[in-house]
Design goal:
single chain; 162 residues; alpha+beta; Pdz3 Domain; 2 domains; 5 helices; 30% helix; 21% strand; globular; PDZ; PDZ domain-containing protein
Length: 162
Amino acid sequence: QASFYGRKIPAIKVFGGFHEFLYTPEDEVEKIDFPLLALRTRFVVRLVRQVANLQERLVWSGPAPPPRVGLEGQDVGDQDAEVLGLPKGQGGIRVQDVMPGEPAARAGIQVGDVILQFGSVVLSRDGALARMRDAIRESRKQARVPIRVLREGKELLLEIVW
């Protein structure tokens, strides 16, 4: 979605939820909830049909409220955590997209980075995304927030500036 956002192209993003096997070799066909997938697919078809049949084309009217940090990511599962060499219990969020010009991009966060700590909150394997959302809400009171990431096997300390 960031590529559309950056080019000021109207976009619809449908979020299906996170799970530890998303985009991993363990994400096998047996894990797909087909009735739920069918339900979501019907919703998207109706939504796209409605948008396509509008009298006027959608036009860019300015950015939607930007994400608080400006990145998209997913929890690091147990197997990925082991491959990354994380200590037992240490989790993280693998960055999948970074929105240009947002705090994450300005901090130097890159696609593929694994966020290990946001401010004083060390991310655990159980619910890293939820913990980070809470940490983001709390950190908005500060002008600068340290963020520890793993990039290509090396830990880096970056800084989010609001």
